[in-house]
């Protein structure tokens, strides 16, 4: 009977130590984030993706986190898009007390390189980089697409807008 108790104790100890190592690994993963997004050419200058938009290979984006208290930059990281216009970057650390956003840096297409200078039209994507935000997926953050604009909208834009039932404030 004593040997069964010792055996049970040893098995329990091994199981508990395995669970503890899994819990530690998961806690470490909470401060590692995969950021995924895309960059497109806004051929209609409406600042959202349409069927006429083209995703850009070689576009540069920058992640910038700033202190909520004094606005100092606490993290900067850049990424470049692939053939599909997508980018990925990995960030470590909890940035709960910071405002983090992705911004456009450089377009590979000189004909599609405009970025709005108006503060209310600023093309940036805010992102939460903390495990304390209620987001179920602790590791992957998917960012809204960011777009560079052409200088003159395409002549096909009015037809594309009509297809989706909108009338933008843009004169063609």
Give an overview of the whole structure.
This protein is an alpha+beta fold. Helix content is 21%, strand content 35%. It has helices spanning 2-29, 157-164; strands spanning 32-42, 54-55, 60-67, 73-80, 86-92, 98-106, 112-114, 124-127, 140-142, 146-150. The strands form 2 sheets. Strands 1, 2, 5, 7, 9 and 10 form a 6-stranded mixed β-sheet that branches. Strands 4-3-6-8 form a 4-stranded antiparallel β-sheet, with no helix packed on it. A hairpin with a 5-residue loop joins β3 and β4. It is elongated.
Lay out the secondary structure.
Layout: H1 2-29, E1 32-42, E2 54-55, E3 60-67, E4 73-80, E5 86-92, E6 98-106, E7 112-114, E8 124-127, E9 140-142, E10 146-150, H2 157-164
Protein name: Pollen-specific protein-like At4g18596
InterPro entries: Allergen_Ole_e_I_CS, Pollen_Ole_e1_allergen
Keywords: Disulfide bond, Signal
Number of strands: 10
What number is the mean pLDDT?
A: 82
Quaternary organization: single chain
Determine the strand fraction and express it as a percent band: 25-35%
Output the number of helix runs.
2
Net shape: elongated
Radius of gyration, CA atoms, in whole angstroms: 23 Å
- The helix/strand series, from N terminus to C terminus, equals HEEEEEEEEEEH
């Amino acid at each position: 009977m004593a040997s069964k108790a010792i055996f049970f104790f040893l098995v329990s100890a091994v199981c508990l130590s395995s669970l503890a190592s899994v819990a530690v690994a998961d806690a470490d993963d909470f401060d590692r984030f995969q950021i995924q997004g895309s960059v497109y050419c806004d051929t209609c200058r409406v600042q959202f993706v349409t069927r006429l938009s083209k995703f850009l290979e070689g576009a540069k984006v920058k992640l910038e986190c700033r202190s909520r208290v004094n606005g100092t930059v606490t993290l900067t990281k850049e990424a470049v898009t692939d053939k599909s216009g997508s980018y990925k970057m990995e960030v470590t650390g909890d940035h709960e007390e910071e405002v983090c956003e992705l911004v456009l840096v450089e377009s590979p297409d000189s004909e599609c390189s405009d970025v709005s200078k108006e503060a209310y039209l600023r093309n940036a994507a805010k992102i939460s980089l903390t495990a304390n935000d209620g987001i179920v997926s602790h590791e992957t953050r998917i960012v809204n697409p960011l777009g560079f604009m052409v200088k003159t909208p395409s002549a096909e834009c009015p037809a594309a807008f009509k297809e989706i039932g909108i009338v933008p404030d843009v004169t063609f």
